[in-house]
Structure formats: structure tokens, C-alpha cells
Write a structure and sequence with these properties.
- This protein folds into 2 domains: 2-63, 2-Layer Sandwich (Alpha-Beta Plaits); 83-338, Alpha-Beta Barrel (TIM Barrel), CATH 3.20.20.70.
- 32% of the residues lie in helices and 18% in strands.
- It is built from 10 helices and 15 strands.
- The protein has helices spanning 11-23, 108-120, 145-157, 172-178, 192-198, 215-227, 254-262, 271-275, 281-291, 317-334; strands at residues 2-5, 27-30, 38-42, 59-63, 83-84, 90-91, 95-101, 125-127, 161-165, 181-184, 205-208, 233-237, 267-269, 295-299, 337-338.
- The strands form 3 sheets. An 8-stranded parallel β-barrel has the order 7-8-9-10-11-12-13-14, surrounded by 6 helices. It has a 4-stranded antiparallel β-sheet with strand order 2-3-1-4, with helices on one face.
- Helix 3 (145-157) links the parallel strand 8 (125-127) and strand 9 (161-165).
- Helix 2 (108-120) runs parallel beside helix 3.
- It binds phosphoenolpyruvate and manganese (II) ion (MN).
- Residues 103, 129, 185-187, 208, 238, 270, 273 line the site of phosphoenolpyruvate.
Amino acid sequence: MIIKMKKDATKKQYQKLAEFLESKHLEIRDVSSKQVHIFGIIGDTSSFEPVDLYAFEGVDEVTRVSTPFKKASRSFKKEDTIIKLKYGVEIGGDQFVMMSGPCSVESEEQLRIIAKTVKQSGARILRGGAYKPRTSPYAFQGLGEEGLKILRRVADEHELLVVTEIPSSDLLPLFEEYVDIIQVGARNMQNFELMKALGKSTKPILLKRGLSATIEEWLMSAEYIMSGGNEQIILCERGIRTFEKYTRNTLDISSTLAIKELSHLPIIIDPSHAAGRWSMIEKLCLASLAVGADGLIVEVHHDPEHALSDGAQSLKPKKYLQMVESLKKMSELLGKKYR
Ligand code: PEP
Ligand code: MN
């Protein structure tokens, strides 16, 4: 952090600030010139924000020079984190990993039909919401615990892994029992009590980007989980809210590049919740692969016209299988193993 004092700042004002910084075990390095009083502070500044220092009289400008996230940062750990799962699935290495399935688990029959397509496509991870955080309290809320049991049964029948969203920390024991990857929904990215609880989980966490979260805020949520002891995090870009209305959200494709620069954590893309329209999914999947994402999470439904949630963005099995063929070809060209 670099601090510049005001021209008319008094010695007493500086002294008060210096005492505060020293109490935080920070070292002060003066780099002042005749015109300005300016100094850098060295050490762990994670217990306060730069803006907090404006509370001290005489402070003119405070600039952060290092990132507020540590464990999630590329400067903390140079090598890419690779999350190793059952069936040889690895996220963050040289595989391009597909997670697919319906938005919501509607019934055992429905999930069984879709899981067959998922398996046929060569994917090893089945998605499906058992607890659905819907905008309206009157919309389908999911099958709850029964949905988790259905997911586990159907996935095991097809030797698939399960990824599904956790709505609150009290359900963690249930998720530990039934789920392989715990998904944090966009609306929960800044539920810090949930992040703390997930820090104690033994399962990898799929951390979706919040609807209007900056990349830094998103990585700070990852930091919460990591600081609790769980370093198995997969970031998921699912589009952010902008002024644009034609698509459901705006897919921030460049966030993948930013994450790869800033962090060692793997990142996948969810084009379904970004676009909100099935007709755009294939091209966005190819773009995700091209930009260097480690995988995708895509909604698939055999009867999207009657789906209980997100039918408009769900691919029908035939279209999904066609798309997978294109993705396999492109993965091969890029030297990635499609899983
Ligand atoms: C979902 O994956 O079904 C979902 C609700 O996603 P998001 O949290 O990104 O809106
Ligand atoms: Mn959905």
C-alpha cells in the first residue's frame, strides 16, 4: 500500500497514522520528495481496506499495490490447481470437462432420461438442482432432499459424478453424503457464513460469480473458503447483469483470461444462465474452449417446453450431442482432452 499525505498534514496527524500502522506490525518505507510526503507500507495489510485509512486526518491518497486475496492468488501459488475427482476426471489440467443435466431435478424418470444422454456424450458430471433459489417464491422450489437422493442414485447407475447447488450451510451434512461437487449459486456468492461453512467441507466447491460481482469480489469469496481450509475451488463464470436485456445476462468471456492471470484456480463457463437462450449455447461453448476455460456447465432437457425451470436455455439431447461433437474436435485441435 502506498500512502500520500496532504500538503498541510501536521506531524501529529502523521504520528497517529504511523502508530496505527506499527500496531499492525507494518513497516513504513519513506519515499518522500521535497514536494510530497509519501510512503509505502510493507507487511500483511489484509486486516483493513485502503479506504479505512481515510479515517485518519491528513491522509490524501491510499493506493493498493498488491491483491487483497492471498491463497487464491497466482503470486501466492504459481502452478495451476488441479481438482482430482473419481473416474479420472481432473479440472484445471489438460482436460476440458463437461458438466451437464437439467436445471432442476423434476423426477427420477426425468433425470434418468437426461443422464443417459449425458453419459452418451462422454461427460462424467451430472448437474441438476435439488434446491432451487427462484426469483419468485411461487415458482418450483425443487425436490429438496429427495432430489439429492435421486441425483445420487441416477448418477451411480451411469457412473457419473454429481454437482448441485447448496442453498444454506445447515444442509452441508446432507451434501457431504450425496454430492461430489457442491455448487454455490450466483445469489449466494457473498453469503459469507455459507463460505465459512464450506471452508470446512471435504468436497470441491463450484463457486459461481455473483450477478453483479467484480472479479476481485469473486476471488475474495474464494479466499473465504480457502482461508477456512478448503482449497478445492472451481470458479464458474455465469454472466453478469448489465444494461443489456436481449440476453439473460452478459457473458463476461474475458473474466476467464483475468482469472488465469490473477489466480491458479480452475475456471469453467456456464453459457446457459448467461445467454438464457438455447440457440446461443453451442457458439458460446466453443468460445469458452477457445478462451482457455477448463470446462463448461450446460443445461440439457429432453422436453424443455415443459421443463419446470429454465426450459428456454436448455438444449435438447440431439442438439447437445451434436454440439459435443464440435467441442471434441476443437478440444483435439487445442490439445485438450474432452471429458
Ligand atoms: C443453476 O445453475 O441452475 C443456477 C440457478 O445458476 P445461477 O446461480 O448461476 O443463477
Ligand atoms: Mn437453471
